[in-house]
Automatic annotation (TrEMBL):
Keywords: Acyltransferase, Transferase. This is Isopenicillin-N N-acyltransferase like protein. GO terms for molecular function: acyltransferase activity. The lineage of its organism: Bacteria, Pseudomonadati, Thermodesulfobacteriota, Desulfobacteria, Desulfobacterales.
């Protein structure tokens, strides 16, 4: 896995980032956009035109990250329009009704863990062959990040500001978007990046609370034993709280008022099984949870291949999916453990915030 150091202005960060992962960007753009286009009998350029209608909204929402994307285009030699379409991939996928199987996440803190340490992480499930890279980012606003990047599409960060409490952020997709519904939203990957650059967990949560979205479920956890979840649906939100110091998420809504809107779980009912399996495994070791124990739990193959550790389903109707990486963060220690592949066969390596 490539480790990429990013610093400077927003444009400079984007330029270095784009230059470092230009092959990943080109592969993601071609594979993902061509795959969707083929599915709906369109051309890739049609999807680029569709997504680029969101550019004015995104510029108004987060001009700093748009500078990053412009720098990324310069550094990679790939057009800004294509890169923005890639950052709008989730919206395009759900708008076009092309649904991949996706992640399982967790957090534990306080009495639930062996030494009271906060632990947050997830298995990242996506299309086989998508490359992961680890970003060490010094943002102009002061945030230091270790951020696991999925093919240039979006990131999974641990963030620390000077004199502030570090926090980690994970995401699992849920969706209330009806196929064919108007696609006029700031891309979720941009919303998530803005949340991750905030100074504190409370401000990161505020980004999600104040954004109108039809998709997404997030878990945030800080070094102060704070765990909070949020679900986005139908231009609304619901905040979730841990039970006995633990939280689990998969790809279905937990909020009762959002359940009738769920457009994801009916295609991937294994989400319920992964969620419950992780809940059972974590409850079994309540009070004894450590990063090493969670590394083992994330290798679980109950209901394989659509298990916590997901492998390609040979009978899959939609695009194949598998666990591309597993990440476990310990905010107090500025520590991130990463298995760059299925955790059942790939060792976890430790990385620390500088």
């Amino acid at each position: 896995m490539d480790i990429i150091r990013l610093k400077g202005t927003y444009t400079q960060i984007g330029h270095t980032w784009g230059k470092a992962i230009k092959n990943d960007l080109r592969s993601s753009i071609d594979n993902e956009l061509n795959g969707i286009a083929k599915y709906i009998s369109k051309e890739k350029r049609d999807l680029i035109v569709m997504s680029n209608k969101l550019i004015p909204m995104a510029r108004a929402y987060d001009p700093q990250f748009m500078e990053v994307l412009e720098g990324m285009a310069e550094g990679s030699g790939i057009s800004f329009e294509e890169i923005f379409a890639l950052r709008s991939l989730l919206e395009l996928m759900f708008y076009c009704h092309k649904l991949p199987n996706m992640c399982t996440a967790f957090a534990a803190a306080g009495d639930a863990t062996k030494d009271g340490t906060t632990i947050i992480g997830q298995n990242i499930d996506w299309h086989p062959g998508t490359n992961m890279s680890l970003l060490r980012i010094s943002w102009p606003g002061g945030a230091e990040q270790l951020s696991l990047c999925l093919g240039g599409i979006w990131e999974y960060p641990l963030t620390r500001h000077p004199d502030e409490v570090p926090f980690g952020l994970t995401s699992t997709l849920t969706v209330s978007l009806t196929p064919g519904q108007d696609l006029k939203k700031v891309p979720l990957s941009i919303v998530m990046n803005r949340a991750a650059r905030q100074k504190r967990l409370e401000r990161a949560l505020s980004v999600f609370v104040n954004g109108e979205q039809n998709m997404g479920g997030f878990v945030l956890a800080s070094a102060e034993d704070e765990i909070i979840g949020i679900e986005l649906a139908n231009n609304n939100y619901e905040v979730l709280f841990p039970e006995r110091g633990m939280m689990m998420r998969a790809n279905h809504y937990l909020t009762d008022r959002f359940k009738p809107l769920d457009s994801f779980a009916k295609y991937w009912p294994d989400s319920y099984l992964r969620y419950n399996r992780l809940k059972v495994l974590m409850q079994k070791d309540w009070g004894r949870i450590t990063p090493e124990l969670m590394m083992k739990k994330l290798t679980d193959h109950n209901n394989s291949p659509k298990s916590l550790c997901t492998h390609v389903d040979p009978e899959a109707v939609f695009s194949p999916s598998q666990t591309l990486a597993s990440v476990i963060m310990v905010p107090e220690e500025g520590l991130v453990y990463i298995a760059n592949g299925n955790p059942c066969t790939t060792p976890f390596l430790a990385y620390r915030l500088e």
